[in-house]
């Protein structure tokens, strides 16, 4: 079955470390997204990509970086510049033809040691 | 910019009760509207959608009607079950000036159903 795979499910970061969250999709979707979810705040857009080798900042991009070297993959790096990284991170993808819904992965929960 | 406003939760109901979760939106264009559901520790799943005025989306006993005149997309279910306990997100997707569809989400409404 096609879908989105996020790994790892749980991740721990020490102070000053960069960590990378993986997101892979086999749905042949062009667009991919990263969201941060905090309790009571809904979803906030970090970065999105409409096509390979191109991506745009979302509402809360500071302290994060992404790459889109392959259509299937959209990894997110949480850098040491992100001072409050503890959150649930969700990756999503969608077809760019008309106004299609997003498909989501099961998320990665990042915590600070 | 676009925005989505949902009623605050948690919404607590007994099994077989009627459910309404209110959702209103503001948008500059002519968006599509969605309801997603999130179970604990999981990602969001599409529950239903509507793409134009007066469309009714339905799935698993849930329904929502795209009301352009009141800019609303309220979620309803006639008889909830314990297994419906989850967080429900209302969302819209509109064409941005740059030619991309950027979804906008509400804050989510937690539903707790007691036996």
Average pLDDT metric of chain B? 93
Number of helices of chain B: 0
SSE topology string of chain A: EEEEEEEEEEE
Quaternary state of the chains? heterodimer
Classify the beta-strand content of chain A into a percent band.
over 45%
Structural class of chain A: mainly beta
What does the largest sheet of chain A look like?
7 strands, mixed
Q: Uncertain regions of chain A: pLDDT < 50 for 5+ in a row?
A: none
What does this molecule look like?
The complex is a heterodimer of chains A (113) and B (115). Chain A has no helices and eleven strands. Chain A is mainly β. In chain A, the strands form two sheets. In chain A, strands 2, 4, 5, 6, 9, 10 and 11 form a seven-stranded mixed sheet that branches. In chain A, a hairpin with an 8-residue loop joins β9 and β10. The mean pLDDT of chain A is 93. Chain B has 115 residues and is mainly beta. In chain B, the strands form three sheets. In chain B, strands 2, 5, 6, 10, 11 and 12 form a six-stranded mixed sheet that branches. In chain B, strands 3-9-8-7 form a four-stranded antiparallel sheet, with no helix packed on it. A two-stranded antiparallel sheet of chain B has the order 1-4. Chain B starts with a strand and ends with a strand. The mean pLDDT of chain B is 93. The chains are: A mainly beta (113), B mainly beta (115). The interface between A and B is medium-sized, with 25 and 24 residues.
